[in-house]
Amino acid sequence: MAAAARWQSSGSGLVDWLTGLGLDGVAEILMRLKMSTDPGLRWGLNNAMWVMGVSSPTQVLAAFAPYTLEDIAQHIRADVLILAGVEDHLVPLAQVEQFRAALTNARSVTAIVYDAESGGKEHCQDGAVTLWQRDFFEWLVGKFPGSTPE
Questions:
Q1: pLDDT tens-digit readout, 53-89
Q2: Can you tell me the distance from the alpha carbon of 33 to that of 102, in angstroms, rounded to the nearest whole number?
Q3: How many alpha carbons fall within 13 Å on the CB side of residue 130?
Q4: Rounded to an integer, what distance in angstroms lies between the CA atom of residue 59 and that of residue 50?
Q5: What is the pTM of this model?
């Protein structure tokens, strides 16, 4: 989660550096200044603060830090389906391969990456909802063939 947030934010290195020096107030001012000119960042940080229950933008990355599959992925033993879009603005495409590689004990791993031509290049495959749903249900039927109703 934190890696994806850092990937989205060009200024996160500066914020990390400032907060690491104990200059949270300076980082806060800079983040709020950037939020005042960037509606996408403003929405994203306000939403993240609300979801994570923190009161300042500087606390968001720290709140996200525990949300990782790094120490958990090797314990996943089920079949895994990963869906991604090549132009996802929230999750870097590189995380697909990182996650796949970390799933060392999964029974199977299937990754489907949607491109612009398919319409599913965006986050959550917006623009190709029926396409990802088709792929999801076909994957389910393929993995659990006895579960389809007659």
A1: 999 888 888 898 888 888 999 999 999 999 999 988 8
A2: 38
A3: 0
A4: 11
A5: 0.76
